[in-house]
Write a structure and sequence with these properties.
Layout (H helix, E strand, L loop, with lengths): L1 H20 L8 H6 L5 H11 L13 E9 L7 E4 L5 H5 L1 E5 L3 E10 L4 E12 L2 E13 L6 E4 L3 E2 L8 E10 L7 E10 L5
Amino acid sequence: MADQEAEKQSLGEEDAENELNYKIPKMKTVAEIQEMDKDDESLQKYKQSLLGQIPTSVDPNTPNVQVMRLTLVCDEAPGPITMDLSGSLDALVKQLFVLKEAVVYKVKIHFKVNKEIVSGLKYVHHTYRKGIRVDKATYMVGSYGPRTEEYEFLTPAEEAPSGMLARGSYVIKSYFTDDDKTDYLSWTWNLSIKKDWKD
């Protein structure tokens, strides 16, 4: 038994040692990647298939990642439940989004990558009820290159809470970030769980 524990400890020390020896390569811009191996036609085609159609000119003041909108996708909903995130976020705090209890829904996020490749994008939301955090969800969105069209990310299906105690108002604090903890967008919105869509 002691030998197994010593072996586990030794393996843990090796992992820590390997982590310390790893050096993260210098980040390359999309322009640098495109300039590399220009003479190799097959490699250029491969890069084109990976990176897609890269925007030719982008306003330098435009952020690299723009979150455009978030939609609660629910087949039972009487209409779309969408929040526009491209403008002022102050109006969202005053708006109330309604979900019927026990419905199955997904969160769809529309976003754009404008200039450089981003890796490890995440969507995180913290759910609060009466000032106390009752849930935290983190969704790995992935890594994306710049392109003119929007990307879409759809979370796995979830079921809205149900029952008398679950009904009521929730405050959601949402974050669109990455592995480097870059804050691309943070916003707060209100969700109400009701017995029916129009209660």
